[in-house]
Amino acid sequence: MSTSTPTPPTMAKGLEGVIAGESAICKVEQDALIYRGYEIADLAANASFEEVAYLLLKGDKPSTSELEAFNKILISERGLPETVREFLMTSGELVKNNSAVPMDILRTAVSILGHLDPECQDITPEANLRKSIRLLAKTPTIIGHMQNSIDGREFIEADDSLSHAANLLWMMTGQKPTPEAVKVMDVSLVLYAEHDFNASTFTARVIAGTLSDMHGAVTGAIAALKGPLHGGANEAAMEMLSEIRKDIGPENDAGKIQAWMDNAFTTKRKLMGFGHRVYKNGDHRAPILHALGRKAAEARGEEFVRLFELGEAVQTIMEEQKKIFPNVDFPCGMTYFTMGIPVPQYTPIFVASRMSGWCAHISEQHANNRLIRPRVAYTGPELRTWNG
What we know:
- The chain has 388 residues and is an all-alpha fold.
- It contains 17 helices and three strands.
- α10 packs parallel to α17 (346-367) and α14 (285-300) packs antiparallel against α15 (302-322).
- The longest helix is centred in the middle third of the chain and has 27 residues, at 125-151.
């Protein structure tokens, strides 16, 4: 009787190229990004963020009546418990004292919401859907109150007449956004809503795979998204462009831009907003957001057009000399800056969008669960004895 030797597990650093599970939510390919059967350019051109959130959470495009009911629930759930509001009142001081950044505040606020949600420990599909909607609705309120605290203003309350994107801008600034600004924000939320097993979504699914609760899984996802190699890349990309502008001066001198980039290449500096683990020939979302952002810059004035021209020069050098293309975070940084959004809030705004994708994945993991437990390639010492 012969016995077969088990095939050793395959090792891939960073799990690159590894298929770690199945999902009906999103398909990421070289030539397409698809949410539940709909391509991203189609959604960006024709669907609102609320419609996309419904699609991700419930699986199908909503009818007119279904969307109306969904929006009604979203609007009704925007308010925050007093305990969370009290915490957010302290966020300005926490940020100003350099002990926290906005993503930390948002992470803690979501964790507190878990303590106060009566269905927190219930991971049935029905409870998960209700919690998903509550989290999606409350995230812009958290971001808005946080920014109000940082700015030293009274909390601005949600406006029930405004969409998800418009209300987010209103609560952060206290100014009713223009239709053009709302369109840019809405499309950016659509573009950021979902992206299969990215780092934060995979984190959420690993946590959900232990049968932990949705609030806990989302809290972990926020912590993962904070990093500059993931969601924080949009902030880092804008900070990089600001550094280039400071170093070369206000004019986009081609020679100075090339010299700055040559130095970055020589010193092996990581240039944020470029490259992608999956997209080797360019991120499908980047040109969509770039076009909208540049249009907004042209409406605002020469200063903002020059920012986009600088970004375009950097992008051209990266593409021609390194064959590396921008991901969506590169135009996002320039676009949000043009809209007057504080740089530290770029990644929290990402959360206001990706919450829909995270919650869809958490619910999917709970519904068809298997504990996610990979192996490791041990690189430590050979076997030795303690008293040897």
